[in-house]
Amino acid sequence: MITIGQTIGVSQLDPNISTLSSERVMWNLLYDGLTKQTESGEVEPDLATEWSASDDGLTWTFTLRDGVKFHDGRALVADDVVQVVQRVLDEKNASPQRSKLAAVTAVAATDEKTVTFTMSGPMPQMPAALVDVKIIDAKNLDKLNTTGNGTGPYKLDSFVPDQELSVVPNPDYWAGQPGNGGIKIVKYADETAGRTALGSGAVDILWAVPYDQVSGLQDSGLNIVSPSNPSQTSIFEVDGAHGTFADAQARQALSYAVDRKTMQEAAFGGLGEINYGSTLVSPSNKYYDKAAVQDYSYDLDKAKELFAEAGVKQGTKFTCWASSSSPQYRTQCEILQQSLAEIGYTVAIQVNEGSTWAAKFYPAGKDYSDLIVPNFLSREPAPLPFVASYFGKDGWSESNWAGTPEYEMTKSSIKTATEESDIKSAFADFQKITSTEQPVISVLNVGEPSATGTDIEGVWIESDGTIHVEGATGK
Prior knowledge:
By secondary structure, this protein is α+β, with helices and mostly antiparallel strands. It has helices spanning about 25-30, 80-90, 125-130, 145, 190-200, 215-220, 250-255, 260-265, 300-310, 325-340, 355-360, 405-415, 420-435, and strands at about 1-5, 35, 45, 50-55, 60-65, 105-110, 115-120, 155-160, 165-170, 185, 205, 225, 235, 275, 315-325, 345-350, 370-375, 440-445, 450, 460, 465-470. α7 (about 250-255) runs antiparallel to α9. The longest helix has 18 residues, at about 420-435. The chain is globular and about 65 Å long.
């Protein structure tokens, strides 16, 4: 059995409402989607063998694979897919995947093997939008945390929330049984305990290792796995609807006060690429438009000026709310604390357990006035449209920025554009608006690394940070 160590536990088994990146590791163990992403970033068939769009782009039809069964032996039918998608689309469930499917107005089972989506407008990236919509047993949701009933390559063996998850190979998996004896995910109290377990061989894969430990792990002979084209972004989140940071000038002021270079060196081990344009498109992405963004190079004089224009008086107290599971967050808070102190603002630092931290902001819409929250955002890279869905109407960003009519038009253009020139233009508009509005403050783009033993093969990480261990071998 292959053992994965994490410092944040798996708290529940419903992938379609999951907001913790630590839970993404189990998505592709227990569940499948209609489509899947390959290591190279291509979208391929998974539970759907083929799909097509109508000439006007307003209807998508997906054909299901034959012979697929849930772990309890029940055959997968189109109505199972319909129930899952309808649940994702239901606002009361606060699914992070809902924004990707915002153009879906209806979903229906044409027959037992055919699912039809009706769209409000053309959406060329529909197959990609469905990658992270995992098919669960929606008929028995109340039992999902005890059954993990999906169609994936592994079946649930045991689960203790926030402590340990164990899965075993699914002997009836439609694509063939996995090539290992099972996978166990174990939560460790901190990075030191996890690294000790990895060094001793008690752990085969250590998820999300601290950036400052990468070189040491490599020197000890372990392998480092990271995304080849990371779209993950280190960010500061603030409440864009309540308190001080409801004012865009205050958000801009904060962005100028972020010493990105020092944070890169002290919190991320010098890794990553600084994002001075403070937008969710990475500077290394070919769709990054330097002319469209503002330059938020460290400038405390500018920060002080903008805070004053926003009516934020010197002596105002903020709280930097960090998670104990990610030590770089506290480091970022300490650097920001020093910077803001130089221009007359006080920052208290509060470190919280992962579950407490998440409950403070999720689901989106909660009031957290005057908190500054370091976070790590994982979104698919441009030209996939889903980064734009994070904000505004139907978005799920906990930043609470409501967007603007101009932004909604840009978001629509990103989702429907098919010509290369139109895609570039839409993403330029996206960057211009978000760099100005600063719904979140981007620090740098960097892949979240994991470490494996030298005998472990088949582990890879998507650009958004999702680690794939379903094909891991070695034990």
